[in-house]
Amino acid sequence: MDLNYFYSICRRYLFFILLVLSPLCQINAQEKINIDDFVYNNGYKYREIIVSDSLVSIVPGLFGPSPSNMIKSPIIKSVSYYDKGLSSRLCVYLTDTISSWLQLAESLKAQGIPYRITKSLDEALEHQVVLIYPELSSRNLDLTSFKKLKKFPTDGGVLICFKPDAPSMQSIFGYKSLVKSRSREQVVFSDQLETSLQLSAHEGNPGIVQIVSKTNPLETVGYSETDYLPLAEYDDGSAAIIQKIYNSGAAYGIGFDPAELSASRQIDQGNPSNFLSNIYNQPVDIIFWLIKKVFQNHSDHPVILGMVPEFKLLPIIITHHVTSRIGLRSAILYQNLEANNGIVATYFIQSKYIKDTQGTAFFNPNNIQYLRKLSNNGMEIASTGVSNTPFFGYMNPGTGLESYPAYRPVITSETSGFNETLMGELQVSKFLLEYYLSNSIIQSFSSPTEKIHKDLYTGMEVAGYEFSTCAHAAQVQTYLPYYNQETIKGNRIGEILEIPVTLSAQEVSHLEDPLSSTVFRLSNIEQFGGVATISIKPNLDKVNIEYEKQLINHYIDDAWFTTVKGYGEWWKARSMIELDVETTEDFTYVNLYAPKLINDLPLLLPLEWQYIGSQPQGIEMKG
Fold first, then answer.
1. Distance between CA atoms of residues 76 and 82, nearest Å
2. How far apart are CA 362 and CA 323, in angstroms?
3. How far apart are CA 268 and CA 215, in angstroms?
4. Ramachandran angles phi, psi of 376, nearest 5°
5. Nearest alpha carbon to residue 493 among 20, 72, 153
6. Is 593 exposed, middle or buried (0-12, 13-18, 19+ CB in 10 A)?
């Protein structure tokens, strides 16, 4: 017998022998495995196995991608970068750079609030609305500074501060005593909010939001004996958001730091104990929406950037994860539904070119026709990796040398896999999709699990992605896009724009009325800001496609249906815009600097302002 033939047969069946003998496969297949509990109890170890060519869909002569450089330098932002703009902007007076000030900046920008950040108190007080960050304390302010700040609201200015606790400022914010705690879990907004912030008829009370984090409890300050009714209280009855109104000025104290909360949840998003799946919760967005309302109510130049183009109510991104041959063929049914309604969606494709216990190697030349049809009809083709590994959040980072067809990950059970690496999943799938769709650049990635790998965003940058839908909004507690950050406090920011997943059809399909549940959650996003990213698994089950039909019919006139890439590019261009307002004796000028082309950008202006004209021409006034 030919020895080479004999060895090839041995290698081919070694995979199946290990599958049978592996002790990890003795778990009852009917039981739903919690992979996080499994790894906690058993650990995770990278394991290798030889996979025969006969199990791999190999395209002769196709190799790639080229090796990646695994060293990626983060973007370092300085305060001076943000220290610009006219006095029409909200001004952040930064008292300590060892803080989540960069997250604060990104959150203000997300709400469309024009802002400036400065370390100079005198320059900050030239603005009408001043936010002191991260704290108002004798540790970083002298007596002269305290005197200036106490005088500011009485002279007509507006102060906003997180966790004000300086004894000398108690009278300014209007409270008698306070208690600090890390055990508070809820913020309950009062009816006073609607009156104080002059909410319109279509703007509702946020109700109750969760601020709990089991692994990184948030420090909160609760106030008592307040001069004015609080805008919100904690679950222990103490005041969470306080106010004191002067003749033309005001002071607002918020008893926790939403920027720190946001940054900590993003850093800790991989921890399953913090996951609030199927629970609407966006405390970060609501607090910065509140700051936006304060700015609009008190500023003489309350111009802000809108959050949805074309004056729609909210953006909706429908995504589909294609992880099987049936799913790939079913995707055409969903694509037909979307195309017939004149909308687009994002299809995350598993580039499965290896046969294992999960199924056949459906990503092969015979099935590429379906991908091309999706792409030719305007749908975004994106990646969800190669193997659909349950260990995505734990696997080996890899070397950056992984390439097709040498990279051969196989999954042998719910709790057993071989050869999978983060870089292999990211860069090999991107290479193959771009090879078959020669006119496309794959820019978006979605992980196959809810667990976020600690090196995910660095790996995505190395592989050449721009957009991610790997985080769940209920976990990071924001429904707005954000750039990944390396640390809770600091000045380093990544290049990947995360667009969190709002919900999946699976989360609501068991309910009596899935659409009503979806509409309720999206109504909150519509008011407080965010994007509705809805994942719908393409299959032959009529439940999912019927849900999508109802969703489209309900929102077809009011929502901007777009793709991950389409929304991400629009949001990036919006994030670069600088906005200032100047007033002369006769006119008010709104000055916009947009370094990148952007279409259908809405500006929210006071109702009493009358549009005269623009330079260059072409700006339309609606509403």
1. 13
2. 9
3. 8
4. -65, -20
5. 72
6. exposed
**Average of per-residue pLDDT values in the chain:** 87
Q: Which residue would you say has higher pLDDT here, 1 or 618?
A: 618
Least confident of 84-88, 349-353, 413-417: 413-417
**What's the distance, CA 105 to chain centroid?**
15
Report the range out of 15-19, 31-35, 344-348 with the highest average pLDDT: 344-348
DSSP 8-state code for residue 423: H
Report field, pTM of the whole predicted structure over 0.70: yes
What is the rounded distance in angstroms from the CA atom of residue 462 to the CA atom of residue 69? 7
Greatest CA separation found in the chain? 98
230-259: pLDDT as tens digits:
999 999 999 999 999 998 899 999 999 999
- Reported as type and span, the H/E element at residue 461 is helix 456-463
As a whole number of angstroms, the distance between CA 238 and CA 187 comes to 10
Report the distance separating Cα 387 and Cα 384, nearest Å.
9
> Does pLDDT of 76 surpass 70?
yes
Q: What's the alpha-carbon Rg for the chain, to the nearest Å?
A: 27
Question: What sign has the CA pseudo-torsion 255, 152, 166, 171?
Answer: negative
Cβ atoms of residues 408 and 401 within 8 Å: no
Strand partners, 591: 580
CB 280 within 8 A of CB 531: no
Instruction: Give dist(CA 129, CA 249) in Å, integer.
Output: 9
- The answer to whether 198 and 231 are in contact (CB under 8 A) is no
